[in-house]
Amino acid sequence: MEIDGNKSVVWRPPRIQMIFDVTATGPPYRTGIVTCEAIKSGGFPPKLDTTLLKIDYETGNEGQEGGTREEDETYFLKGEREEFARVSRRSGLSLETLGRSVHIERAAAGRR
Question: What is the CB neighbour count within 10 angstroms for residue 4?
Answer without folding.
Answer: 8
